[in-house]
Amino acid sequence: MLISAVLNGQPLLLAEHPEPMLPWWSFTKTVLAATALTLVRDGRLDLDEPLTGNDYTLRQLLRHEAGLADYAELAEYHTAVANHEPAWSAQEMLQRLQADRLRYSPGSGWRYSNVGYLMVARLIERTTDLPLADAVHARVLLPLGIANVRFATARADLQQACTGLATYDPGWVYHGLLIGPLSQAVLLLHRLFSEHLLPGDLLQAMQETHTLGGPIAGRPWRAPGYALGLMRGPVDGGVVLAGHTGCGPGSVVAVYRGCLGDVCASYAAFAQDTREGAVEACVVEHICRHLNG
């Protein structure tokens, strides 16, 4: 398992060096949310106005409350990925899913939706008039001093990332799949909370959480929730986590900032062929040991 941290503002790599390029999986959602929030900061988007032609808002998209379905519910999607097939076009995926049919009224429920973040990615591109990669680089990666991070666009981008990805088409991640060093993921999360990129009111809004229930078997959450591009909630010892877990074929990444009162620490872990809960537990153990040590 690879582990990286930011302590006292300084990155600390607890595993091999030089670092491999790793898939960030759904931690990409945190980066997309931050990108969208810079557009709110600049007055180019509004969190709570219905988006043009839709009944849902940006806040609802970012918090998975927009009523959209998710392509993970399609059995043929899982079959195609398992058979190492090329990704469908976004249009074909949306048609197969009947994605224009909302599963519930926006704001009245919660359902994790990768399709929602595809809509966020498209909104970023329309608003900035830039390709997604350029918008994310200009608005988040560059201002936060994050290096050697890019979107995977072809199988070749993943061939050296980790075992089991040589035949995976990153096009299956319709909102985009960032790849980069683990230390850069945890550094990004740490710097995101510094109020350098986003003003305090938007950082507070980013952490407003839809609580999803009680403990989950095999995972460290006591009351898991979802904020704006962040998985967020308390774990044992009174520590509150904010960040994201992501998983794909053969690997899991967990990138979190944990706070106990005003003291915070950021850790990330990456492992192959393991469970989400095991990687999250590793991060929680390191964060709690630091905060309680």
From TrEMBL:
Stretches assigned to the Beta-lactamase-related domain: 22-256
Highest taxon, organism lineage: Bacteria
Database matches in InterPro entries: AmpC-like, Beta-lactam-related, Beta-lactam/transpept-like
Coiled coil, from the record: none
One Pfam family hit: Beta-lactamase
Name of the protein in question: Beta-lactamase family protein
Organism: Pseudomonas baltica
Lineage start: Bacteria, Pseudomonadati, Pseudomonadota, Gammaproteobacteria, Pseudomonadales
